[in-house]
Amino acid sequence: MYQAGVSINDRFWFGIANGGAAVSFFFVLSAFVLTRQAMQTGTVASLARGAIKRWPRLAMPVLLTVLFSYALAKLGLYHYEAAGQITSSPWLKDFASGLGGQPFRPDLPGAIWQALYEVFFRAKVTSPNYDSSLWTMHYEFLGSFLAFGLAALLIQLRTSSNLTSAFLLLVAALIVIETNSWYLMFVAGVALSLVFTTHRPNIPVWIAIPLALFGLYLAGYVDGRGDYRWIVNVLGYAPLNVHIFTAGAMMLIYAVDGSAFLRRHLTGRWAAILGRLSFPIYLLHVLVLCSAGAAVFVALQEQTGQPWAKIIAAATTLAGTLLVAAPLAWFDIKWTEYLNRFVRRHLAAAERQI
């Protein structure tokens, strides 16, 4: 039986550490960003370019990440097993749940196959999983095409009433809820694109800030316990966390992008740098944790005790992740620029031939 105060994942501040909520937010944001320009211009050309680029755009950073993991394993630089034994953490002992209890035997052809095919086209990769964080790539990849398709249909319906577009999005939402709710975030992102296309919000700051904070608050939801019991009381049941996360992400994006005040204070050079680093940090943080972070913890835990060893290991993981994420972010920028030029050039040549 659950008792109040036993767990942190029933408190309103749990959202700052809730990985599932963060993934949901980025899925909604991804669909919003991928479709907004096309919805605003009313043309499907940018959707076509986005669809053509989507796999290579994601696959190259993923490939470099998996090869980095392969190299760490081959060189014996992973220390997750020893750290997991000391902390009694099954998650850490199993390479962040990436091995399924099997030994880690790195294989270069298998690593390349996993990076270029399995993480995108299969819901579950074969063991060993070189980076357990990559489970999201399957949903990001397929969800992107769901977003592209919905946006193309909405553009074709532009002359129809907004009610028709809303009905289409509702049907799409109901279908994905019944099949796989992780794709609901992509429907939500397209819905936000439609809202910002048909009616540019101008939200007063006294509404935008509470709305954004409430969206962040919903990121701490797990299953209706503790600070979120009222949701169960109001609805009469405990909704799935991905449904609550989707609602919170929509509120947060709507509030920030719809408020001139929040846009002004939450954009700029620092936000652009953070945005560029976010994807590489996500790809690499588990690998750094299981190598440098775990190594520091194992080396220090007898000398300093576990609390200090954990703190220093966490700092090492943070610094190490930023250190390796920076060059990957630079590469990602150059790779994206190259893909954009390549696709524009070849599409223009194809259009001239037609």
Summarize the structure in short.
It is built from 14 helices and no strands.
Give short descriptive properties of this protein:
354 residues, mainly alpha, 14 helices, disordered N terminus
- Separation, N- and C-terminal Cα atoms: 68 Å
Q: Shape from CA axes?
A: globular
Give the tally of β-strands. Answer: 0
pLDDT < 50 stretches: 1-6
Helix content: over 70%
CA gyration radius, whole angstroms? 22 Å
* Main beta-sheet annotation: none
Note the run of SSEs as H and E: HHHHHHHHHHHHHH
* Strand residues, percent: under 5%
Helical stretch count?
Answer: 14
Structural class: mainly alpha
Mean pLDDT: 90
Please give the structural blueprint:
Blueprint: H1 19-41, H2 45-74, H3 80-87, H4 90-93, H5 108-121, H6 135-156, H7 162-179, H8 184-198, H9 205-218, H10 229-235, H11 241-258, H12 260-265, H13 269-304, H14 306-353
Helix pairs in contact: 1-2, 1-6, 1-8, 1-11, 2-5, 2-6, 2-13, 2-14, 3-13, 5-6, 6-8, 7-8, 8-11, 9-11, 13-14
How does this structure look, described?
The protein has 354 residues and is mostly helical. It contains 14 helices and no strands. α13 runs antiparallel to α14. It is globular. The chain starts with 18 loop residues before the first helix and ends with a helix. 35% of the residues are buried. Residues 1-6 have low confidence and may be disordered.
